């Protein structure tokens, strides 16, 4: 587990913020794995030093209030994801929203599938109405995500029906190095190669070539009671289906973050602090995935590795605490 602590400490050191703040955020990230909470009061208990708990809380809040370079944080998260994925020619990126407590706030998140879960690589915190600006907001976010990923890789954005607007997809596919896999609504329509418009209600077979709005692609059709209609700019229908199936893994990540890390119960009120706390959580979760991958703790792709690792981390929490107190700053793997 010392490898995991090394990764987390080096992660925050490489963000470029001052050493004291980076060290504090690193310990909060490690504390989140041990205590499984987003309560700053509880996380701050792991901070070293012969000072009162009140002083530790103040130190934690000061660190969360600092100017955090989220662009650099996202780049480091991408670096972890790419290290895990290995040699690839394209990177599927799952995009989805998750609501926070009370559904008045939400996060737009980009993540990379991994063993029934997903590795978070970027987020946008939303505490305002998206009415009239939703598509522009989402496009701006996805453009930023694309810039964080090396241009040598093609990015495949994998999305649910909420992102199936025709004009939105056209603008998205105009970005260099971007492909899409998106589920369509059942009342949508496509055009075949002859220019004829066909309602998806009447389509029973997959098509290797069609148009959705002005975007050319393929259509995978899963028949049955719950029909699934997946449009993709990829030509490989099997790959489109596989990537969309993996889209559901982000839901498992959301469940982990809410049940294990308290994502839906964050009590901090300041926007800057909330963004920093989410970044702390993303660092913890990405490091957890990296620890599993590096240790090859499971060879299959099923869902138990997060719970198993968290139990082990809790059992050796004292070791991790001692490790952080010694202040070892290593190079990120």
What does this structure look like?
The protein is α+β, with helices and mostly antiparallel strands. The protein is 45% helix and 20% strand. It contains 12 helices and 10 strands. The strands form 2 sheets. Strands 3-2-1-4-5-10-9-8 form an 8-stranded mixed beta sheet, sandwiched between helices. Strands 6-7 form a two-stranded antiparallel sheet. β2 (106-114) and β3 form a beta hairpin. The longest helix is centred in the C-terminal third of the chain and has 25 residues, at 271-295. Mean pLDDT is 89; it is low at 325-333.
- Element string (H = helix, E = strand): HHHHHEEEHEHEEEEEEHHHHH
Helix content: 40-55%
Low-confidence stretches: 325-333
Number of helical segments with 4 or more residues: 12
End-to-end CA span: 14 Å
Main sheet: strand order: 3-2-1-4-5-10-9-8
Choose one word for the global shape.
elongated
Rg over CA atoms, rounded to whole Å, is 21 Å
Largest sheet: 8 strands, mixed
Number of strands: 10
Name the average pLDDT.
89
SS-derived structural category:
alpha+beta
Quaternary organisation:
single chain
Question: What portion of residues belong to β-strands?
Answer: 15-25%
Short characterization:
The chain has 333 residues and is of the alpha+beta class.
Indicate the topology.
Layout: H1 2-13, H2 19-35, H3 40-43, H4 53-64, H5 70-85, E1 90-99, E2 106-114, E3 117-126, H6 134-148, E4 154-159, H7 166-173, E5 178-183, E6 189-191, E7 197-199, E8 207-212, E9 215-222, E10 228-232, H8 237-247, H9 249-259, H10 271-295, H11 305-315, H12 317-325
Parallel strand pairs: 1-4, 4-5
Antiparallel strand pairs: 1-2, 2-3, 5-10, 6-7, 8-9, 9-10
Helix pairs in contact: 1-2, 1-10, 2-4, 2-10, 2-12, 5-10
